[in-house]
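ok so i was messing around last nite and threw this chain in just to see what happens. nothing serious, just curious
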Amino acid sequence: MSDLTPQSETPTPTTDKITQAARETIYLCNFRVSVDGEWLCLRELNDISLTPDPEPAHEDPKDPVAIERLNLMNMAKLSIKGLIESALNLGRTLDSDYAPLQQFFVVMEHCLKHGLKTKKTFLGQNKSFWGALELVEKLTPEAGEITASVKDLPGLKTPLGRGRAWLRLALMQKKLSDYMKTIINRKDLLSEFYEPNALMMEEEGAVIAGLLVGLNVIDANLCMKGEDLDSQVGVIDFSMYLKDGGHSSKSAEGDGQITAILDQKNYVEELNRHLSASVNNLQAKVDALEKSNTKLTEELAVANNRIITLQEDVERVKEESSYQLESRKALRSDSAADGQALGETRKQLKEETQLRLDVEKELEVQIGMKQEMEMSMKMLEKDICEKQDALVELRQQLEDLRAINQQLIYKSQSTDASSKQKNEVIARLEEKINQMSGTVKQLETSEKHLMKQARNLNSAAGKLLQLQQ
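result:
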């Protein structure tokens, strides 16, 4: 493919660098990568010259380095979009053998390699992006864990292998976008590793870092032990992104239907999570009300026992007072010799009267406590009414869920063989709805039980009022 690259008659150092970069990357300057909808298009540019202008007034649209950056950005866009869509279809959990994930790492490797400065060592020339990735540890302390894990992996011997392992660990940690933005914002540090016109130094690098945010919705489970990351050859498979005219319309229509069903599935799952949280909150409130109701019942029983005891004391004091009055009348008819006994009787009568007053005061305190308990019962009844309204809303939401499930079933019957997986999802949703219906029925049973206890408390309070009267 090197014969497609035109050579200038008098090569210069700048021309040699550009030519070397054009030969090392798979994106040739004779082709420009563009995105047509969701597909990749290669357009040949026959009038491109690798010799840059001496003093360009602005960026040349035919500049090979600019074309390489644009190609890499478009490839990254297609790779990230295809990876997210395929991951959503598979359940969002990916492993190392997944082809779109492997292609994504290859594209990211080429993006990080673009415009790297060559460093000379005693072993020869070294050109790796691992040094640039090590900057993240200095700028973001939480990235130190990934760097330490990469250095501890026993099978990695080259900087290229460490860089590949770092990319995989950052993706699993869902921090790849944040780390890339961190180092792209520090171009003063990146200039040590990249040429001024490299992708990481230009606007395309910031665009790719923004696209990486979408990867946070997928989960990756990658095992790097035993995997040879040092000697892997990063080759992009263009067949995954090239447009196929025979299947474009059908696949686009099928993807649109699958996307719509997935969106509805995600909406129903989110609604189910919201309803589950509401049911759990209501269940917690019902449990708290049951505990408070039990406590109030116990306090009411204690208060009833106390009132009965006080009433018995009052009756006893009344009987003793009547007995003392009768004794006093009998003593008045006796002789004056019984005056001392009469004084003692008066003293005892005074003490009994004071005791009766104390008992009446305590009885008034118990009546006040009873009134407070009645207020608590009214508040409990009000809370129960609110819970009934919440249950009505839950029933309405369950009806809406059933309507949504019927729509999903209707749509799933109109799709091709790939919609069988969606039927299983709908079945699981129906099971969740049935479980929620059972939970709502349990809440209704608990509500009836609370209403019954409230009626019992009201009847007991009425009996107490009748006893006081």
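not much to say yet. The longest strand covers residues 31-36.
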